[in-house]
Write the structure tokens for this entry.
Amino acid sequence: DIRVVDIGGIDTEACCGTHVSHLSEIGQIRILGVNSVQDGVFRCTFVAGKLAIKAACEDMRLIHDVCTVYGCQQSDIMMNCNKFFAAKNSLTSQNKALTDQVISLLVKCCAYQPGDKHVVIRSEENGTSFIKGIDEACKQFPEMANKSILVQGPTYIVGMVQQDIADKLAKEINAAFEPLNAQSKKEYDEQVKKMKEEGVAAAN
């Protein structure tokens, strides 16, 4: 049997769920989420019966935990969340401004440091900040024309170096990878040869 559920004035659909004698037997229904599938079509995720009660208890437990963390009443959760994110955004902006100042000072120290033409700085900051900061700071100090500054982070190396040093580094990097490139090309050629041989064998 196919059961058709009609919600007057809203929708009529074939029932693909549990068949009960009366809808009241399903008990409590709790909607977990609604997402758009396509224009005008939405998918509604829900639980019913004991699972709905369990979901409600989990929600209340989560609300209680949030209140404990913020030290507030349930009615003040949103206000505290807004304060938290406002403070976070403010600190992020302050951190960026301080990072820019540090970069400027580092470049300035490098520019006026006698004798040292190459300076390496180790930092945990984002590499993107240094790329922009070094470029802008170096424009302010003509003395950087004869200097090289590198910033080494956890997963990056950025900086400004003289052309001759850049060429030398490029050659050293290419030389270091040359054996790997040669090995990769050899393996690739062997793989292509093997595939061609297998193709000929299959055709025969």
